Amino acid sequence: MVSTKITNQKIANIFSEIALYLHAEEVPFKPQAYEIAAENILALEEELSVSYQKCGKKCIDEIPGIGKSMADKIVEIVQTGKLKYFDQLKKKYPFEMLELTNIQDVGPKTALTLYKKLKIKTVDDLQNAAEKNSISKIPGMGTKTQRNILRGIQFLKSSSGRRIIHKVLPLAQNIAKKLQTVPGVTHVDIAGSLRRRKESIGDIDLLATTSNPKQLIKTFVSLPEVEKVLEQGNEKAMVRYTFGMQGDLLILKPSEYGAALLHFTGSREHNILLRELAINKKMKLSEHGLVHEKKIIAAKTEKQVYTALGLQEIPPEVRIGADEIKLAQKHKIPELIPYNSLKGDLQVQTDWSDGDSSIEEMALVAKTFGLSYFAVTDHTKSLTITNGLNEKRLLEQGKAIDKLDKKLKNFRVLKSTECDIKKDGSLDLSDRALETLDVVSVSVHSNRNMEKKEMTQRILRAMKHPLVHILFHPSGRIVNVRDGYNVDMDKIIKAAKEYKVALEVNGSERLDLHEKYIRQAIELGVKLVISSDAHAPKHFVNLDFGIGQARRGWATKADVLNTKTVDEFLKAIKK
DNA sequence: GCCGTTTTCGGCCCGACTGTTTTCAGTCG
């Protein structure tokens, strides 16, 4: 029996909690092993319960950081919904380790002490104890610790965890911009998961160089965006922002900037692998540089550090601690698609359906984003809520586009559609109407809860349609909102190859495809398009997030059809 | 508990900051 209710998140949580208990017990090395396993499980796109059904323990054992012992444990969880080893630990330590250590400044050892001394089991217990002044009486803890714990609980209750990159990046850029104007400052850069373009962001890491560190730290902690200062040293400060996130500012020596940028960009797993590689070469890597026999041999730029380690420079977006280092050793990291390299946008909604603006308004703004063409892809009639187009209105729109196209200079508007894939896999518009278009794109919007087999068949049928060029948001997920449809993505990718249908990398908050499938599609030779899914002029920034996502999936310029000029693009999609 | 261009045994990432202490433990990134 396999329980599909066991999610990867749940398994990762169990492993993380085991790591914390082992850490509290001061067991050497095992905690890190469980932590790494938990991280790697979270990065998986496919549910482990599904992988196990597909090919048993073998598939699980192949996951990096998971060996025989943990594979057995995962199988036990997937089969029974429980893990005996974990239950024993919970019996021994019946307190909410994971929740308690979520509080800033509370780690596994503090949580254990709190349980032993005051029988604290939950965050609420801890809050009560702190409010009664009991924490400060524990040896090794004082009034400041007690106060910090209370603040941490308050923050935890008011914040909502990781946020989507679309919301966080503009905030970070704005703060960085302000710091750049402080006298003496030479560099301010965004590091951490923002620089790696992760889909969701936990905190904001900023790095800077300046001739006047004191002044910069002082300005930083006094910014109007800063609600509370959590740490303030000579080269580092940590704050809580008014928008409910935390952030660091680190001040660095210009001579060590590359090593520090590398360190604070992460990921943690990537850094660990780099340091292990350094040790193998009788060197030591830290944020201060790569050191050999007490002499710094590389530190100024990231490239210098990678080169000194015998590696090709690795782009931030793929620094996840998987196979990127091995490929960099063989100099097999491809040149990823550059930012700002798109010439067109293949998904744009206008006021003909649920967009805010006219085709012309959208076109004028698109030009300012460096585009020379886009496809108008209003919804179709099944989606009545969006005022979707029927055949008649589509033809009218075509005429309007012809007229506009003559008027616009250096910009081409393509006739297109986001044609709804109906429940049975047929399309929402007649072939005759579709034949009038330059590009036909299709996607699923209704009946999202179909069984996997039916949903897969439905999408495959639409892809097989001879007039279809592009499949939009192939998995149906929206980051932090909902998971994708139940669909066999392997089959979709193979069909994309067979029927010559491009897959969309949607740059909106969908960020759909997932990077794993982007990489898989590319390896099979499937072509991609990156689009903004703009419903308003300001949404063209989504193209940038789409490129970030594509880079995370190892896409090159050649893999992405809308890096081409409009004529080349139209030629490339021809069947 | 994982892993292997040095290895199937014997290794396992590094440093700043804070709070509570008189030299360090815990947390964090």
Radius of gyration: 26 Å
Please give the CATH class of the largest domain.
Alpha Beta
Percent helix range: 40-55%
Low-confidence stretches: none
Tell me briefly what this model is.
This protein has 575 residues and is α/β, with parallel strands linked by helices.
Describe the model.
This protein has 575 residues and is α/β, with parallel strands linked by helices. It has 4 domains: 8-154, DNA polymerase beta, N-terminal domain-like (DNA polymerase, domain 1), CATH 1.10.150.110; 163-251, Beta Polymerase, domain 2, CATH 3.30.460.10; 267-329, Beta Polymerase, domain 3 (2-Layer Sandwich), CATH 3.30.210; 344-573, Metal-dependent hydrolases (TIM Barrel, Alpha-Beta Barrel). The chain is 44% helix and 14% strand. The strands form 5 sheets. Strands 2-4-7-6-5 form a 5-stranded mixed sheet, sandwiched between helices. Strands 14-15-16-17-18 form a 5-stranded parallel sheet, with helices on one face. A 3-stranded antiparallel sheet has the order 8-9-10. A hairpin with a 2-residue loop joins strand 9 and strand 10 (295-298). The longest helix is centred in the N-terminal third of the chain and has 17 residues, at 8-24. It is globular and about 80 Å long. The model has no long low-confidence stretch (mean pLDDT 92). The protein binds one DNA strand of 29 nucleotides through residues 22, 28-34, 36-37, 64-70, 104-110, 139-142, 144-145, 148, 192, 203, 205, 231-236, 238, 248, 250, 263-264, 266, 268, 271-272, 274-276, 278-280, 284-288, 329.
